[in-house]
Amino acid sequence: MGNDKPRIREVALTGQESPTVKTIRLYDPPTSDAAPGQFAMLWVPDSGEIPIAISGTEEEYSEFTIKHRGETTSEIHDLGVGDKIGVRGPYGVGFSRPTGPAVILGGGYGVAPLRYFYQSNSSNVPLTTLIGATSAEELLFVDELDAEIVSTDDGSRGHHGYITEVIEDVLEGKDVEMIYTAGPEPMILRALEICKSRGLDLEASLERVMKCGVGLCGSCLIDGFRVCKDGPVVGLDQLDEFSEFGRWTRTASGKKEPI
Amino acid sequence: MGNDKPRIREVALTGQESPTVKTIRLYDPPTSDAAPGQFAMLWVPDSGEIPIAISGTEEEYSEFTIKHRGETTSEIHDLGVGDKIGVRGPYGVGFSRPTGPAVILGGGYGVAPLRYFYQSNSSNVPLTTLIGATSAEELLFVDELDAEIVSTDDGSRGHHGYITEVIEDVLEGKDVEMIYTAGPEPMILRALEICKSRGLDLEASLERVMKCGVGLCGSCLIDGFRVCKDGPVVGLDQLDEFSEFGRWTRTASGKKEPI
Amino acid sequence: MASSCRATVKTVGNRTGTSTKLLGLKFTNPLFLASGVMGTTPGGLKSAVDAGAGGVVTKSLGLEARKGHSSPNVVGVDCGYLNAMGLPNPGVEYFTEELSKVDVGAPVFASIFGEDPDQFAKLTEIASGAADGIELNLSCPHAEKVGSAVGTDPDLVERIVSKAVDATDLPVLAKLTPNTDRIVDIGRAAESGGAAGVVAINTVSGMAIDVETKRPVLGNVTGGLSGRAIHPVAVKAVYDLYEGLSVPIIGVGGVETPETAVELILAGASALQIGTAVATCELSVFRDVDRGLAEYLSQEDLSLEDLVGLAHRN
Amino acid sequence: MASSCRATVKTVGNRTGTSTKLLGLKFTNPLFLASGVMGTTPGGLKSAVDAGAGGVVTKSLGLEARKGHSSPNVVGVDCGYLNAMGLPNPGVEYFTEELSKVDVGAPVFASIFGEDPDQFAKLTEIASGAADGIELNLSCPHAEKVGSAVGTDPDLVERIVSKAVDATDLPVLAKLTPNTDRIVDIGRAAESGGAAGVVAINTVSGMAIDVETKRPVLGNVTGGLSGRAIHPVAVKAVYDLYEGLSVPIIGVGGVETPETAVELILAGASALQIGTAVATCELSVFRDVDRGLAEYLSQEDLSLEDLVGLAHRN
Ligand SMILES: Cc1cc2nc3c(=O)[nH]c(=O)nc-3n(C[C@H](O)[C@H](O)[C@H](O)COP(=O)(O)OP(=O)(O)OC[C@H]3O[C@@H](n4cnc5c(N)ncnc54)[C@H](O)[C@@H]3O)c2cc1C
Ligand SMILES: Cc1cc2nc3c(=O)[nH]c(=O)nc-3n(C[C@H](O)[C@H](O)[C@H](O)COP(=O)(O)OP(=O)(O)OC[C@H]3O[C@@H](n4cnc5c(N)ncnc54)[C@H](O)[C@@H]3O)c2cc1C
Ligand SMILES: Cc1cc2nc3c(=O)[nH]c(=O)nc-3n(C[C@H](O)[C@H](O)[C@H](O)COP(=O)(O)O)c2cc1C
Ligand SMILES: Cc1cc2nc3c(=O)[nH]c(=O)nc-3n(C[C@H](O)[C@H](O)[C@H](O)COP(=O)(O)O)c2cc1C
Ligand code: FES
Ligand code: FES
User: Do C289 and C258 meet the contact criterion of CB atoms below 8 Å apart?
Assistant: First the structure.
């Protein structure tokens, strides 16, 4: 619990990934040692603390790739090299190590944890990457992950439409065992259906409001499952059992909200 | 600090060493691993908690050799096999390992820690043991420590008088570097004088009222030295610096009392 | 972390049951989920029961939905956590409605918080729609006007409890704050008001400051300390309440192992709640502690009831 | 144990002084020995100064010699100790006499405890014979009739302080209990009574029960919790007092590292006391914390005075 106190770090490097997405790099040994799929709680003093996936590591540095959404993410976007931010974690359960050919399926900033997953793939299994975004300029890490197919909602690059619409074509010719995915919940839901119908396995990284990150507060519950501690990466069986997944999320007060 | 909670142990064995001194054996890995000279706090529920030296160990068992003095020691004397007692520790700093020929000088129940010291002597240095007591039947561990000379105040065995009176004779013929001692403070004081005059080194185990055993409460102070944490074994230089040693002890209230 | 969750109580002997009757309710064991920990949704409550909890307490519910304090809401400290959630909850009606559709599998206490006796009465009435008991939160240390603001005045406590008791047929518990020199007076006031039992303790007031940014860490500045750090405080509170009260006491604070559970029962608790340990240990902490408790009872050849308050014999 | 004593504050930069003037006294650093810890004899006080303490507080002294409670007097718990010494002391006259013959090497506060304003006045008068300041113990949680029994009633506190202030020319500090919901009211009462400063906190009420013998461990049954477990409680108390009072605050509770020290200073403490860490760390804890504090100040380019209460800026 002494570890669950924010460590104050200086931003070592920043990079703009898209008009709305920025990566920051911090010297932070604990998170640099995390499993792909694990996340950290990032604290911007006087603003707030939010859960962010680890998007890559290099030696004792970790990277976080953050979409400009509201108050706290906007504060993080304003940080420059040398500015301070608090980090605690890593938290949660990450992705398993791939043991056979697999597909990486990322939507929006969901590509962030998958980038770290890709970086960490030390086994020799072939990974096929599919990436979707709203528009061409919002596509993340396409080259780094050697994406085979991309899609955009506005058709500005690759497939015009949702990335889920091309999964089955990609799977046709390939001997794939498993999909690793993160991104909008409808995308994950669709991937789940595809995996079920084709007998593939699946691991998905989920998001909920996370106020503690350690399994205490219950703000991140899906049914009775603590996404922060027992997730955020969940397997197919677990996902398939949820009654709320893909349909409901919870607001900060605990009220249900349709996804 | 979690370790500083009494562990409840059953008495595994008891032995009467003299009309007033009894040994109890407990299964207690932490103290069985102690250095000779270290002590434990023994707790008799509903009576009290007192400091007692470790007088020997065997595998994960420790022994304590206790003189019947007052309330709590009398309760301990009443314990039989299977009865319960609390132990915390080991505490304090023990004796150094002998590196050359040495004398063991024990008076009264002070022989207790020296017995463990003798047991633990794995180096091949020759140890010459001198033991004093009030009377023949109160002499402790004479055979076990292969005592060369014993003394009794009433002359019922060995030298008639104090054991300190024979030290110099013993030292005459021998190439001794150091005295290890425990027992009445006047005895230790005399040993200190002898060592100083002959250029020998000395380590002595001291006693004071000890209410905490961990260095908090100050009840065991000699000058500003915490006997429980920085002792109970102290070296010649330290001993020689004390203004209170050999002259004053402190009562439970902190008042000075002549020794 | 995990290491501190292991039992240090010896575990030989045959397992005996720890099922218990209390407040007119039956529990498979005396280890309940504490309020505010995981129990923000009926699904969270059910998870705890599935993991072995003998009963559960909901997150504290108010009349209106509340988002809670701004983040950070939780910070780790030595042997515990500080939290300042700020009583986020979807409102008593919303929660009760949702709860009424779920079979939690064990008795559910609805925890409620309000500003005055009338609010507590209204909350009690609504919450009684789906709960098996009511727990009055008179003790949250970091919410303005509610919580311990209403829980340190014995007269007010008596009025709140008595209004709540009038508003329901269910057993009403009063949850007490340790941040006072009058916990026994407050417990007695709750008893006079008709409380079927008291729950002790809520969190201990505390805060953490980050030395590099020089800012309080919690969004709310101050918060409540929970976990093993406060266990001795809970033991003392339960011990004192047992001497001063006749209603059953439910002990809370730093229960993580069979040993910490037995300690509170010996002090006088008839049942226990577990909060922080669902984070520092696994959710199986309920089952693990229950197993250790059962083994302890069997070894000592005592029933759970026998054990309650045994440290007081003299 | 030792590991928790290590500094986590970065220690680059040049060492600057931490000497400080407070209450009309000069201290080489703001880290004082807390009352009751080692300071039962003048020799113990001197040892702390030799090990780097900038000031020292004596064991609390009463009118008569006291042996203290029956043993066990101390038991270890998670992240701290419970103690119930029972205010053993040789009596104020005896101690003052002995102290007058020793050059401790730094300012000495005589801590005193009594049952009523007149006793406090008398104790103050006698203790002033050899001390540089007086600390009124209004907060021992485990002694009958004295200690927190007199420290939770603001009116009584004001009268005690004012009588003590009248009885001496030395600065008078009031040491406060955290076991109350009115610590700021009590601090204000002390201030009105003329206290030159307040000291916060004394130990937190707690107890431990042994599960095998089913007996309270401490001879006195209940005791006071000290050490890192109570650090967040101390930070909160100091923070609140800083908002409500104008006199200097001396922070106590779980100081073991430069970080824990800085935290209390940021909360509003002008100086600190260290108790439990002289057992959990080495006596060099004074020097070690001072060094870390100095390095922190140098790195942040702040003076000690600048740092006091900085977490309150808004
Ligand atoms: C496990 C996990 C991993 C994530 N990884 C990433 C990532 O890699 N990149 C990325 O861009 N986004 C990620 N997110 C989403 C990210 O947490 C939200 O986009 C972010 O919290 C929005 O904050 P904001 O202040 O900008 O938004 P606002 O809507 O202004 O929110 C205001 C306040 O609401 C609270 N809040 C909002 N969302 C959350 C939340 N999910 N949990 C807790 N508090 C919240 C915070 O207190 C915040 O300060 C992740 C979320 C989770 C649960
Ligand atoms: C480091 C050390 C090692 C010791 N080793 C041994 C040993 O191996 N064998 C042995 O026989 N004796 C040893 N003693 C002495 C032993 O501690 C006392 O003889 C014993 O405390 C007397 O207790 P009592 O209750 O029988 O006496 P009483 O005079 O009846 O004392 C009553 C109470 O006074 C308190 N008390 C008395 N003496 C002490 C003390 N020294 N410290 C703290 N509290 C005390 C206790 O609370 C006790 O219950 C040692 C002492 C020290 C300091
Ligand atoms: C994150 C968190 C939220 C809490 N919320 C509530 C609450 O809403 N109502 C309440 O009465 N107690 C609340 N508490 C207090 C707990 O119910 C419990 O009394 C306290 O944490 C001590 O138990 P523990 O040490 O087992 O956690 C909360 C505690 C935590 C850690
Ligand atoms: C063994 C012990 C004895 C104490 N005796 C006294 C005392 O006599 N008077 C007093 O005001 N405080 C006494 N205290 C409280 C300390 O001075 C201090 O307020 C408390 O321990 C918190 O600080 P710490 O966490 O650094 O120990 C005692 C504390 C301990 C551990
Ligand atoms: S974020 Fe608190 S339980 Fe998951
Ligand atoms: S016995 Fe308490 S300091 Fe030594």
Answer: yes
Fold category of C20-312 in CATH: TIM Barrel (3.20.20)
CA of D36 to the centre of ligand 4 (A): 5
Identify whether B201 is part of a domain. Answer: yes
A228 with A115, same domain: the answer is yes
Contacts of D71 in chain B (CB under 8 A): 43, 48-50, 211
State the DSSP code for C154: H
Helix (H, G, I), strand (E, B) or coil at B43: strand
pLDDT band for position D142 (50/70/90)? low
Q: Whole-model pTM?
A: 0.95
Q: Please report which ligand is nearest the Cα atom of A183.
A: 1
The answer to the question of residue B39 being in a domain is yes
Domain boundary among B68, B91, B114: B91
Residues A116 and A189 in one domain: yes
Retrieve residue B256's tokens: 């000075």
Distance CA D165, CA D160 (A): 9
Range of the domain at A69: 7-91
Q: Do chains A and B touch (3 or more CB pairs under 8 A)?
A: no
> Domain check: are B70 and B147 in the same one?
no
pLDDT recorded at residue B180: 98
Do A75 and A131 lie in a common domain? no
Residues of C in contact with A5 (CB under 8 A): 75-77, 208, 210, 217
Structure tokens at A193: 């259906």
DSSP state of C176: E
Pocket residues for ligand 4 (CB within 6 Å)?
Answer: B 216-217; D 34-37, 59-60, 81, 83, 85, 87, 111, 137, 140, 175, 202-203, 226-227, 230, 252-255, 274-277
Give the tens place of pLDDT for each residue, C209-248: 999 999 999 999 999 999 999 999 999 999 999 999 999 9
Q: Check C232 against D77: CB less than 8 A apart.
A: yes
Identify whether the C-beta of residue B60 lies closer than 8 Å to the C-beta of residue B27. yes
The whole-angstrom separation of Cα B67 and Cα B18 is 9
pLDDT, tens digit (0-9, with 9 covering 90-100), for A59-88: 999 999 999 999 999 999 999 999 999 999
In a shared domain, residues A62 and A117: no
